[in-house]
Amino acid sequence: MINTEETEKILQRQALRLSGLNLLALKGISGVTNESLAESMAISGDEFRKIFRDKYTLVEEICDYYGPGTSGSNLVTHDLMDELVKPYNFMKAFVLRLVKKWNGNGDRLYLKFLLNEQPIMYDDNIISLSYYMNDARSLWWMIFEEMINHDFIKPIDPVILANEFITPLFMCRIENQLPNSSDNFNLVQDTALSHLAFFWENIKQTDYFR
Fold first, then answer.
1. pTM
2. How far apart are CA 201 and CA 194, in angstroms?
3. Which of 23, 61, 72, 106 could form a disulfide with 40 if both were Cys (CB 3.0 to 4.6 A apart)?
4. Beta carbons of 33 and 99 less than 8 angstroms apart
């Protein structure tokens, strides 16, 4: 069990990371220094180096926290898995969780950072928009395989299904992050659910009712 002191340290690090991400989303990796990041976090340069070492280590931590592995399997909890016998309900619950996650301040800043920096490069790592979607696509590849095995949906290549389901959802979010867009949460949610309804009607078995 995490004690109060450890909880405070975790929350403090999250706040520092978010402050750094805010500056990175605005100026990019090349536009910031260790000193400017420390200033944005309201800590000294020595404190910054003690906590994060340098800006590249901070970027790596940000990408681990907000990046490719955060919009797929981590959203599928045990209670959601119980809904898998009702595939449309399961898909709808996942979509709503995904859109809600995207509406968080950190996730919005990370997407802005990713779009501005595309691709994000640090050490030997490269994070592209395609890579950002990989965890979700891999998850749904497996889920669609199970749905086909249970005769819930038509026997279409699950890789194709995963791409056709996930890519428009991510593109909807990206489109509403671009300059001059409203970044309207309700619009993103409504568009995502409309995509889901259209997608489901075209993949479900003809004798299956949600």
1. 0.85
2. 11
3. 23
4. no
